[in-house]
Amino acid sequence: LFVPSGTMGNTIAIKLHTTHGQEVICEARAHVMDYELAMMAWFSGCLARPVFAPDGVLRWEHIEPRIRRHSPFWAPTSLIVLENTHNMAGGVVTPKEVMDEICDRAHELGIKVHLDGARIFNAATYLGVSVRALCEKCDTVMFCLSKGLGAPVGSMLVGSAEDIARARLYRKRLGGGMRQVGVLAAAGLIALEKMPHRLEEDHQNARLLAEELADAPGIRLDPPRPQTNIVILDIGETGLNSEEFCTRLRQRGVLASAAGPNRIRLVTHFDVDREACRMAAGIIREVAVAAWRSCRGSR
Asked: What are the structural domain ranges in the chain?
């Protein structure tokens, strides 16, 4: 099912698998938790149960203790949402065996699993497996045609025929039904057919950024070595907050986004080549060094 955005795809999937007054387990920094305007509450009437995974990889050992059965005192768990790759954990990849175990154990308990796979093609590229194999045990999957695949707009929601029939109605209710979608779908076909094979270039460029900035004063990489196409920098020791740091970068032609009060996020993609990444790394280093020296001098 084509949807205008990943948020709409996730919103519909959560609605498919839940009823009002239930809980949804997700990682504490998940996109459905922090960046979708509480739609699981607003649209589905569900409570998010965030579970922190130190490396961003949610495992069954993290999930099982937080599952709630039916009780007169608390809301039961009806859905687990995984995110692969994990955006705010620096594009970290959840291995196939970890996903499979979660799906198997959840299904034994009658709990559904939705995958926020906005960048699942990046995860599959890193692992060297097919997207189909990586997702095969999930009940529904959302992935973005934009982002690494390079389409101008659009995401897809994948599931059983029965689920997608219901999903069409929810898409309509959310304003996502478009008779004119063909022109967008055409770009999506190119994204699916032509773009996955080049994702490793983005991963290599992200590693280049990390290598160039590994010893920059005032900067700490989190995680130290990116697996896919996201680089997160802790810039706390520069004395600047993330908005101030991003503003200085933007003034010099480098676009980055805040990922917390002292963390910024860099994403490599089709529109940024290796030389541009080298140039961006040099500017980031210069901004960091200037701020770090100023901070030390003011002490």
From this structure: 2-194, 198-297
Report the C-alpha gap between 201 and 189 in whole angstroms.
Answer: 20
Q: What's the half-sphere exposure (Cβ side, CA atoms, 13 Å) at 216?
A: 29
Other C-beta atoms within 10 Å of 16: how many? 22
Distances (CA, A) of 90 to 47, 168, 210, 267: 26, 33, 11, 9
What's the sign of the alpha-carbon dihedral 11, 226, 135, 59? Answer: negative
What is the fold of 2-194?
Aspartate Aminotransferase; domain 2 (3.40.640)
pLDDT in tens, 132-150: 999 999 999 999 999 999 9
pTM of the model: 0.95
Q: pLDDT (tens digit, 9 = 90+) per residue, 24-51?
A: 999 999 999 999 999 999 999 999 999 9
Give the distance from CA 175 to its chain's centroid.
23
Largest CA distance in the chain: 64
